[in-house]
Write a structure and sequence with these properties.
This protein has 302 residues and is α/β, with parallel strands linked by helices. Helix content is 33%, strand content 23%. The chain has helices at residues 43-53, 68-79, 122-128, 145-152, 169-172, 182-189, 196-208, 247-259, 265-279, 292-301; strands at residues 7-10, 14-20, 35-41, 58-61, 63-65, 82-83, 88-90, 96-102, 108-113, 136-139, 156-159, 175-178, 213-217, 223-226, 231-234. The protein has a 9-stranded mixed beta sheet with strand order 6-4-1-10-11-12-13-14-15, sandwiched between helices. Strands 3-2-8-9 form a 4-stranded mixed beta sheet. It has a two-stranded parallel ribbon with strand order 5-7. Helix 5 links the parallel strand 11 and strand 12. Helix 8 (247-259) runs antiparallel to helix 9 (265-279). It is globular and about 60 Å long.
Length: 302
């Protein structure tokens, strides 16, 4: 049996600090909270952990600060099977942090400090990844765009364009696949994918701009894939959702894990949908990512 090829993930690593309170404080007001928790996060780290827990070799290219959060973030990724030797540790910038206030109605207010995530440079990417036409590279947009563009030239890039931002036209022709959700699709194309016709039209926009494969994630409606010749609509699995925080990251990680071993699009999309379904049945982001045996058992039960 040939070895499983490695996947490179270029992205962000954050420590999410979650404060729960009865209501949001007014300016200048101090409230007593009801709960506090810390959760390793960042879209890049989440996707790397998803891939690692599925059993694929994966290396993370990112940056944390020389602080306690950085130690925790690296330890969490290593414990999930992620190679972290390609990570940088910044001497002066803090690790990326998100402060999340959640009131008793479930509404939230979030402040994100990118910190060391802003130091993920094209030089770091080029020094970390060996160029190969067979390598899969996964990226998002919580890091400087120059790092994403550099990575797109080193292998088959799967871009999750989140959070949505303006992209230069030339990047699309470098992408093996793009995986936007409904709002990101609308931001980039001007078309919200609400039905079969709009999914086809939005996908055509990406394909005409040079992307090889388009995967639209549609929440409870599943996903849609097209390469301009063929297309597939994959329904979502019905599960009792507890926390949908990392559903998109789970899907991206699951899809990359199967495409990297040469699996066809239909089976890979089904697998990715199962990874996302299992992730939303547990609280947290990285903590909720399933193992390959859990995914295989879930698929066998459907």
């Amino acid at each position: 049996m040939s070895p499983i090829p490695p996947i490179w993930v270029i992205g962000s690593a954050n420590m999410d600090l979650v404060f729960r309170c009865s209501r949001f404080p007014n300016p200048g007001e101090t409230l007593l909270g009801t709960d506090f928790s810390e959760h390793p996060g960042g879209k890049g780290a989440n996707q790397a952990v998803a891939i690692g827990k599925l059993g694929n070799p994966v290396s993370f290219v990112g940056c944390v600060g020389k602080d306690g959060f950085g130690v925790t973030l690296i330890r969490q990724m290593k414990g999930s099977g992620v190679e972290t030797s390609t990570m940088a540790i910044h001497d002066s910038l803090p690790s990326g942090t998100a402060m999340i206030l959640v009131d008793e109605a479930g509404q939230n207010q979030i402040v994100v400090v990118p910190g060391a995530n802003g130091a993920v440079t094209k030089e770091l990417v080029n020094a970390s990844i060996q160029s190969s036409t067979d390598s899969f590279i996964v990226a998002q947009l919580e890091i400087p765009l120059e790092a994403v563009i550099a990575g797109s030239k080193l292998g088959k890039m799967i871009l999750n364009p989140a959070p949505a931002r303006e992209l230069p036209d030339e990047i699309f022709s470098e992408l093996f696949a793009i995986i936007p959700n409904e709002s990101e699709t609308e931001f980039l194309t001007g078309i919200r994918p609400v039905d079969a016709d709009s999914c086809k039209a939005a996908s055509a926009w990406f394909l005409e701009n040079g992307v090889q494969n388009v995967v639209l994630t549609l929440g409870e409606r599943g996903s849609y894939w097209s390469n301009g010749i063929e297309s597939l609509s994959i329904p979502a699995f019905r599960v009792g959702a507890i926390d949908t925080t990392a559903a998109g990251d789970a899907f991206v990680g699951g899809l990359a894990s199967r495409l990297s071993i040469g699996e066809g699009w239909q089976d890979a999309l089904q697998f990715a949908s199962a990874v996302a379904a299992l992730a939303v049945t547990k609280p947290g982001a990285q903590e909720s990512m399933p193992t390959r045996s859990e995914v295989e058992a879930f698929l066998a039960s459907q």
